[in-house]
Amino acid sequence: MTIIQFPEEMKWGTATASYQIEGAANIDGRGQSIWDAFSKTPGKIVNGDNGDIACDSYHRFEEDIKIMKDLGITTYRFSIAWPRVIPQGVGDVNQEGLDFYHRMVDCLLENEIEPMCTLYHWDLPQALQDKGGWDNRETIDAFVEYAELMFKQFEGKIKYWITFNEPWCASFLSNYIGVHAPGFQDLQLATNVAHHILVAHGKTVKKYRGLNSKEGQIGYAPNVEWNEPFSNRQEDIDACRRASGWFIEWFMDPVFKGEYPSFMTEWFKEKEGVTVPVLEGDMELISQPIDFLGINYYTGSVSKHTDGGLLHHEQVDQGYQKTDIGWNVFPEGFYKVLVYIKDRYGNVPIYITENGSCYNDEPVNGVVKDEGRITYLRQHLTALRRAMHSGVNIKGYMTWSLLDNFEWAEGYSMRFGIVFVNYRTLERIKKDSFYWYKQTVQNNFFEI
Ligand SMILES: CCOCCOc1ccc(-c2cn(C[C@@H]3NC[C@@H](O)[C@H]3O)nn2)cc1
């Protein structure tokens, strides 16, 4: 038996997001987001699901925090819904929305759970989308004003801020691939969106520094995956480099190097005639130093060159175990991508802000035996510990997710929670993985 022991100072937590768990979408002054509109568009979401009720955490957050207290975690990553606090995205503030987040944050602090707050987890106010959304540079300043209001409102309460969650999803998945809100399929539009989100990130970090927050920290949370070349043929190696360049370097090089990866911008220009709308001063803003990097990792793949497609790249099935959403279980990729990030960007403090798996096990006599999720957690925490032994500066781990919730285009058909949610009764049922994770958090080690 081998013990996987974590350092004393390791922070353990869970992660959620506003549109995925809150519900209460049309009460107490909340404005509409692009996800309210997208989820009400026929054909976009499995089973026509939407976030109107979700897990009803707007009303049940005390119960959720009680569950977190039982879990023994010390950090809870959640997001604020911009349209709940500023319904039109700019202008009037919704006091009922602010009051909700104060109640929730106060309850976390009373239970000695550190709030880690994501300012943008994809729920852009629809009123701003109606004016061009992130394609319109004015949205950048609207975001900075929203962020400043949150910094001032929660000064002394929230000490860990994340500007953007998964900018790749918020830009390319949403405006080029089109399976997320607002659902466009235009690479130049998506490239504009990606750039303006990065500028908004940098301006927000600069605004935060200007507020002289005493002990607060600010970062952001890109999603990464690992692409292993199918062979040592240069064309396969190059194809994987482009996949990594789109998923990782595109959103990390500007922040840590002050420039886009040129091999990627040249590829976009030559193959697609697409350019990044960089204005004077943008790259200096984007590369404002951050205090920590959030990393969201789920999966990876073996991939190779193919003719056609955006990157001339395709995955090659290698018979890996897959989760119920069809993603490879690829813990080796977790180790490799973390070491790659350390080697390329230096040893910035890293929080794993999302890592988890989709297994749709249902309760039997009140018990949810989600062995697949426990195996996934074991394997990925083992890979994480190995990365730490290799010098990666990991500060904490938040598993995705505390609760089963609205999994975007998959609706409620895909379950990522360590707590089962009955969407008819909203009853919460702790899964076997909850108890495994609780033991690991309590002991700060587990056995493999
Ligand atoms: C037709 C091509 O279709 C491609 C689909 O491509 C993707 C890529 C990535 C994702 C994805 C989903 N998640 C989990 C979320 N992370 C944030 C949190 O809200 C979780 O719910 N991470 N990545 C989905 C779809």
TrEMBL record:
The keyword tRNA processing does not apply. Substrate binds at Q20, H121, N165, Y298, W400, E407, W408. It comes from Natronobacillus azotifigens. This is Beta-glucosidase. Belongs to the glycosyl hydrolase 1 family. One of its GO terms (biological process) is cellulose catabolic process. The active site is at E166 (proton donor), E354 (nucleophile). Keywords: Carbohydrate metabolism, Cellulose degradation, Glycosidase, Hydrolase, Polysaccharide degradation. SUPFAM superfamilies: (Trans)glycosidases. It comes from the Bacteria. GO terms for molecular function: beta-glucosidase activity. InterPro entries: GH, Glyco_hydro_1, Glyco_hydro_1_beta-glucosidase. It catalyses: Hydrolysis of terminal, non-reducing beta-D-glucosyl residues with release of beta-D-glucose. Its EC number is 3.2.1.21.
